[in-house]
Each structure stands twice: as structure tokens, then as C-alpha cells.
Amino acid sequence: MSVTESAPKGVIPAHLLRGQKALVTGANSGIGMATAIGLGRAGADVVVNYVAGREDAEKVVEEITSLGVRAAAYEADVSQEDQVVAMMDWMVREFGTIDILVANAGLQRDATIMEMTLAQWQKVLDVNLTGQFLCAREATKEFVRRGVVPEVSRAAGKIICMSSVHQIIPWSGHVNYASSKGGVLMMMQTLAQELAPKKIRVNAVAPGAIRTPINRSAWETPEAERDLLQLIPYGRVGDPEDVAHAVVALASDLLDYVVGATLYVDGGMTLFPGFATGG
Ligand code: NAD
Questions:
Q1: Given 60, 107, 201, 224, which residue has the most CB atoms within 10 angstroms?
Q2: How far is the CA of 39 from the centre of ligand 1 (A)?
Q3: Of 21, 77, 31, nearest to 53 (Cα)?
Q4: Is 50 in the active site?
């Protein structure tokens, strides 16, 4: 397969999530944007959270609305408790409830351990881990209040945590990021265990290398992309839609019996490709 060949777009069944209300954090860029649009294609109404870049968020809203479902943009910093509480209150007021939370917002502040400031460490933990905790907590309150509505979904709610292959692959020069995603793994599994009896399904999607602004330097030049492909047995860099499709599937009743799982969307990156010839 050519490295420039884009991912097969696939077809999302238009009624898979009909009547469901979804919140995607960090949905004005990259994976979050593709996921918000993917959920809209599947028939969900979508709240497009953003922290900066209202114009991009409005474009996503426009695209989702053109699919015949409802969408709205909401500005909130997921690492700020009061803002997350206000966002969820607003969503329940405006959209009636929430059925699907995609805790996607994330960032990197890279440095070697000796160079890394406490502010860099803290910022990444605050957004990538605490942000997911706050959103999951507030969504859970509404899932429990409302309970299962069988015509809408078999579950009372679905939480999908955007993790990374770095929840299990150590990553030199990124100790804050890898630690945050390692934390997401244990948070997701613990919440899945705690909330399954309440019919709330908590799962994670762990992307490998996906072509988005967060990792531009890793795929921007042909040399960088060639190096990156050494780590990907499937021979292509992922597209945001690859991740969006995984989220849509996990959010749907097709995967109703999947609880506490991580779906790696990584072209085989977690298969230790260096061992294909070595070891
Ligand atoms: P991106 O930079 O395009 O998107 C990140 C989004 O999060 C942006 O919209 C940004 O504004 C938002 N965000 C940052 N801080 C926020 C805050 N405090 N509150 C609300 N929103 C905030 O990058 P992406 O690649 O689309 O990343 C999305 C998620 O996927 C992240 O959690 C990232 O760790 C994860 N991920 C990405 C890759 C990849 O290869 N691109 C791989 C593994 C995991």
C-alpha cells in the first residue's frame, strides 16, 4: 500500500446513533473534529467543545448541521472544574441530556526530564487527565439521573476516553504526556468497573500516529514520515477518520457488551514492529 494512500473512508450507518446527544471535547481540530462529524453522520446531535478557535468550532457545527442533526459550539477549558460543570449544565438544558461523552481534548508540552518545568508537567496532567476526570464525573451524574432509555440505547451512557499508544509505550522526552495517558488507562478501567453496574460503558480509543496538528513534525516532511513508518507495520499514517470510526462503533449498541476495553487504532504500532526482524 502506498504511503500516500488515504484511509478508506468507510460508510457510517446514518441511524446508528439517532436520537443520542454527544459531547466531544477539543472538537475544533484533528481527531475531535473528525469524531464530532462522524457522530453527526451516525445521527447524533453533537456539542462541539473548544477552548480557543471559535471559527473552527463554528465550521464543524455547520458541517454537522448540514447532515440534518443538531450541533452547537461551547467554549470551555476542560481542566477548569467550574467551566466543565457549566458546560454540562448548559448541554442538559439545551440538548435535554447527554448519552455519549468523548473525552478527547489533549495537548503536548515536550521536554526532557531535566528541561521540563513543573508548569509543563502540570499543564499536560491538568488537561489530559484531570480534564477527562471532570468531564466523566459530570456526564456520569446525568447518566445516573436519567438512566436507561431503551428506545435510545441499551446503556445509560457511554464514555470514550481518548488515550494513546503511549498509555503503554514509554516515550522519552514526553514524560508528562506518557504519564497522563498511563493515568487515562487506569482511570478508564476503574470507572468502567465502578459504573458498569449502572449500565454506563466506559472504554478508550488509543490512537497511534494520526495526521493532526498535535504531531505535525512527525509526518510533515517525507523524511519524518519515512522514519515514522518504521514504527507502523500497516504502512500508513492514520487519518482522524480512522479514530472517528472507532469512537462511533464503541458508542453504538453494536458494541454494547464492550466494557473497560482499549481499542488501539494504530496500524499495529503496539505490536513491537522492531521484533519483526530483531529480537
Ligand atoms: P489537536 O491538537 O488537533 O487537537 C487537540 C484539541 O484539544 C484541540 O481542539 C485543542 O484546542 C483541544 N484542547 C487543548 N486543551 C484544551 C482544554 N484545556 N480544553 C478544551 N480543549 C482543549 O490534536 P489531536 O491529535 O486531534 O488530539 C486529540 C486527542 O488525541 C488528544 O487527547 C491526543 O493526546 C490524542 N492522540 C492523538 C494522536 C495523534 O497522533 N494525533 C495519537 C494518540 C493520541
A1: 201
A2: 17
A3: 77
A4: no
